[in-house]
Amino acid sequence: MKFNWINKATTILLSSVLIGGVVTTTVPMLTTQAQADSNENAPISYQMFKDDENGVKQAVKTASPKAKMQLNAAFFKRMEKNPVNAYGYAISAYFSQVMEILASHAVSELSRKGQVTPAFTQDYQAMLAVYDQFKGRLEPDYQGVVNDEIDSADQQISENNVDPDSISDISDYFIQYFEIDLRPTKITGMPKVKSTMTKLTAKRTSSKKVIKVSGTVKLGKKANYAQIKTYKGTRYAKLKGSHSFSQKIYAPKAKKVSASVGYYSHGHFSRVTAVKSVHVK
Fold first, then answer.
1. Which residues contact 225 (CB under 8 A, 6 or more apart)?
2. Is the pLDDT of residue 3 over 80?
3. What is the mean pLDDT of the chain?
4. Nearest-CA neighbor of 96 among 200, 174, 22?
5. CA dist 82 to 88, 90, 172, 184, Å?
6. Which superkingdom is the protein from (predicted)?
7. Are the CB atoms for 184 and 43 separated by under 8 Å?
């Protein structure tokens, strides 16, 4: 169940006082949108990202089997490819998705009459662990809203009569406030990726006079070609989108092949990996 965060916060924070027969409404000071905007763009360090990722991974370990199947290693691997997106800078807000997925499974695990099940408890506790990882970076007013929702859900759980909307509300408000206060445009201290050739093979084809040279590379710098050397000279093979290359070379007496990967332009090749050599098989 989705709500507008402003309406929700206003509903909770409004109070009416009867003075001299007149109802006077008082509204405690909320953080303005301009202040939130200045907070959301603050850079986050790579170390903080890793701490957040590890904290969320630990939370997921306590979740139900069905939730863990969805929040698997592949999910976190996608997150690691571009950490800034994990906070919602782009469409893929992975930390928010974790909370949403846990809440969805928790609700689905409730009995038809809202009674608690072991799987529900696992997912609900995982939700609270995710919230604990980030709540210290949410503004106090926002923490108060989420805490009130958690208190309400805890009361229902103690009575073994849970309204699914109460669980969804925890997720909805956390996600909305998370995306207000934590949306960095930059991750600082990103580790540099070293360009390395991870695989190189040289095999004779059926003609015996032609060898097929293939390789894959992990890139930290821009590259577009592999430079391959045999006793017959130097050849170049264009890198594919998967950072792999393959080239057939006429070299009847070749016993050894060496290769490196780099950037080739206007007749000049700048190597970004070390030279790797293999024997022809």
1. 236, 237, 238, 239, 245, 261, 262, 263, 264, 269
2. no
3. 86
4. 174
5. 11, 10, 24, 12
6. Bacteria
7. yes
For the chain, state the CA radius of gyration: 28
CA-nearest of 132, 129, 157, 127 to 67 is: 127
The conformational region for residue 10 under phi > 0 = left, psi -120 to 50 = alpha, else beta, is alpha
Kindly list the structural domains of the chain, giving each domain's residue range(s) and its CATH number in brackets, ordered by start. Answer: 5-188 (no CATH), 196-279 (2.60.40.10)
User: Rounded to whole angstroms, how far apart are CA atoms 83 and 104?
Assistant: 24
Cα-to-chain-centroid distance, residue 262: 29
- How far apart, in whole angstroms, are the C-alpha atoms of residue 277 and residue 139? 57
Q: What is the pLDDT of residue 19?
A: 38
Burial class (CB in 10 A: 0-12, 13-18, 19+), 81: exposed
- Asked if the model's pLDDT at residue 74 lies above 80, the reply is yes
- Burial of 151 per CB tally in 10 Å (0-12, 13-18, 19+): exposed
* Residue-by-residue DSSP string for 34-49: HHHHHHHT--EEHHHH
Q: Could you tell me if 224 and 238 are in contact, meaning their C-beta atoms sit under 8 angstroms apart?
A: yes
pLDDT in tens, 6-29: 444 443 333 333 334 444 333 333
Could you report the per-residue pLDDT of 143-172, keeping only the tens digit for each?
999 999 999 999 999 999 999 999 999 999
- Residue 19 burial class via C-beta count within 10 angstroms: exposed 0-12, middle 13-18, buried 19 and up: exposed
Cα–Cα distance measured from residue 111 to residue 4, given in angstroms and rounded to the nearest whole number: 28
